[in-house]
Write the structure tokens for this entry.
Amino acid sequence: MPSIPDSREDIQKSLRDTNKGSFHEQLVKQITSEYENAWRYTRPRIQEGLLRLKLYNNQKRDKTKVGDPLLFTNHQSLMSVLYDDKLAVQFEAREEGDEETGENLNALAEFDHSDMEKSQLDYDWDWDTLAFGRGLVYFNEFDTKSKTPIPEVWDSLTFIRDPNAISVNGNRLSRGAMRYGGREVGMTKYEMKGSKEYFNLGKLKSDEGRILSLTFEARQARSDAHGMTNLGTFDKTVGDNHELRILQWFTHFEGKKYLVELGNERKVIVRLTTLEENKWPIIDRPCFPMSHDWDGVSVFDILEDKQRFRSVLINLFSEHARADLHPMWLFDENKIKKSIDKNFGFNKWIPVSGNPNDAARALVKPQISSQAAFILNFLDVASQRALAIPEMQQGVPSEKSRTLGELELVASKTDVRFSLTARVFGWSERAFWRRWYEIYDRDFSAGIHKKAMRLVGAFGPTWRDIDRDKIITNHPLGPDIKIESRVMAEAKKLRNYMQASQFMAQAFADPNTDRLYGLRELGKLIMTQDKVERLLPLTIDERIAKQENQELNEDNPVIVSVEDNHNVHLRIHAALKDNDASKAHIKAHEVALTIQRVRPELFPAASFGHSLTGQAETAGGLKTEGRLVGPPPEGATGSPSPLATNV
């Protein structure tokens, strides 16, 4: 097989050459084979999904019939809980020195949330996930104008894939990863001309004849659900606004990963992008996953049969109720002359021989049995139990009066079920923000890009310039990313706050307790660190210690003053890097604390933070105006003196 050239220019030049034996032909042949295999496998699942859209909003039903909103009600109730429970992301340093970078990433993620339209993306992503079992987000583009990554939700009903895949990127060993897959999408030449990634646009042709189209089928199915007429097969517009069917395909070729886009029924390549990362730029979110399986279980899987059966029963019951209002009549044909057929009909008259109650009476019908009512109720209860959405969770008061304890127990168990789904959603949310960081690492260049970020602090919004050095960590694996449910996080904070309050109430009775530190830690459980430090400002010692950290992290020696509050300094210095300067500095504070207990008269009680002149620090202790404050010299006899002359 001919090899692919390394440079992008050579790739495009070679792709324009469609002669026999070119790698263009080889690549198209491979993708055609993969597409047909994926289409045959995925097609039945897609068709099932297209049919189920009608159940969600079935406006094309018989207008004399009643549709049951069971699927819509439960799907939206579950959506409401999961969408309201925003998954919070937190970036933390993997190694010393990246703490500030982690804080910058937290602020940048919050700022980008709006620019990426993450709220709308989450709704579409969650909707597809609950409806079809797995939702997909393509995340590979970077907007150079807003300097923001661009995620996009892909329609699950236009996506076909490797039959052997159990997820997009498999496990950590890439076991079960997708070998190939992609989607069909409608694109105009205007859209493609706006990107430098596309070529061969002059060879693209409009579709001719009746061609099977995943994009058209998905649009038609959604139109059918709204009760609309046939849309027609092809776009009738002309020029740059004419929509062309493009296949966006991921595949391996010559040992590399590629994103390939093809037109003209997958015959002409219009884009070929090398993917440097060793994984596909798609984040997949499962709903109720099954081990070793791609599709898992969806809300539509659970509710389809129940809604169909309930709809049949409801319409039968409605016919029964209507018959009560317009019953059939039995009459004595000897007294009332009328010819009539024997089929059931509303307000129908049936002749009988004899005297049915003198002249005429209503036909007696069987009443709705308790079994039918039980089945109707059972289907509703079964749906609620399967998805953990009781009537109370849907905003409907319970039919039975229950005690407060029962209601609280139901609510707590419901939250447990939702917490499982939230944790599963957290897998994909973590992968999303990992990919967000990777795109910044790949496309946010040093010396070229700089981004102004708005931060909302205790005194209103402030602005901070962000460049690459402030958001890219020193560790090759990037920052540690934690995802937590907002509801679970708030419950955890409340529990921690109650426990910490009780503990600190006892701890503050000890005169040696660092009350300021305790109050700040307690405050961080209910407000941001910025607000806490505005309410309880940093002391002089804390400010000095933070300034010293900057020098010590660079391995520069810093003088320790006998007037320092050494406990406070040691608390702030706990965040230092592990180097010689920080070790010596911390050792000096510890030695000073030891001497302070033995000879307190040597340490002034006031003027904290005022450094003495002529000080120099060694690894063994403090040297102050010609005196070394520290342990006695080796070999000293008798009782050691806390102050030993060493000059």
Q: What stands out?
A: The radius of gyration is 36 Å. Residues 1-8, 606-647 have pLDDT under 50 and may be disordered.
